[in-house]
Design a protein that fits this description.
There is one protein chain. By secondary structure, this protein is α/β, with parallel strands linked by helices. It folds into two domains: about 10-45; about 50-165, Nucleic acid-binding proteins (OB fold (Dihydrolipoamide Acetyltransferase, E2P), Beta Barrel), CATH 2.40.50.140. The chain has helices at about 10-40, 60-70, 70-75, and strands at about 50-55, 75-85, 95-100, 110-115, 130-140, 145-155, 165. The N and C termini lie far apart (about 80 Å).
Length: about 180
């Protein structure tokens, strides 16, 4: 049987442990700095489709986003369905592609939508359901607002989801992500 008696100097062990911990912290800090400054940047922009489809579920979120951040959405192509709605001071090429937004528990609604410009708009009567494809532009109607310059427009049936609802409480504005 072999017995070894070793006496440890606690101060020396503490110094060695402290130095090892310090070296580990330096290595981790150096690695982090390298990752931050010397690695290739990843393009974190989400590619947008050529034409963004607007549905009843995302309609008011997109409407809010486009109105709040018009400059970011100019030139974006969109496709959606609504009904033709006009007010007295529109010219013959203007109308709102509208939806009814439910604003209370007793199903009171409010007309919401995008102002549209289409050279043949007079061919479509009020309350006609249409499907459009167009580009978001900046227009003037009692101030700067988004205007959809329609490229294609055709009549369609009233959708199953006729009503839309106010923007989500968890609404997060996005740049061209529908």
């Amino acid at each position: 049987m072999f017995i070894c008696n070793v006496k440890l100097d606690h101060k020396f062990v503490f110094k060695i442990g402290f130095v090892c911990l310090f070296i580990i912290v330096l290595v981790l800090a150096g690695f982090s700095i390298y990752k931050i400054f010397y690695t290739e940047r990843v393009n974190d922009v989400i590619p947008t489709p050529d034409v963004s489809n607007i549905t009843a579920n995302n309609y008011t979120n997109i409407l809010k986003s486009v109105h709040d951040n018009l400059e970011e959405h100019i030139g974006q192509k969109i496709h959606f369905t609504g009904y033709v709605y006009r007010v007295y001071d529109f010219n013959e090429t203007q109308f709102v592609l509208a939806r009814n937004m439910v604003v209370s528990s007793d199903n009171q609604t409010l007309v919401v939508g995008f102002l549209c410009n289409y050279k043949n708009a007079s061919e479509f009567s009020d309350n006609t359901w249409v499907e459009i494809t167009g580009k978001i532009t900046k227009g003037d109607y009692h101030g700067d607002i988004p205007v959809i310059e329609i490229q294609e427009m055709k009549t369609c049936n009233k959708p199953d989801e006729e009503f839309v609802y106010p923007p989500d409480d968890m609404y997060i504005p996005t740049s061209a992500l529908f």
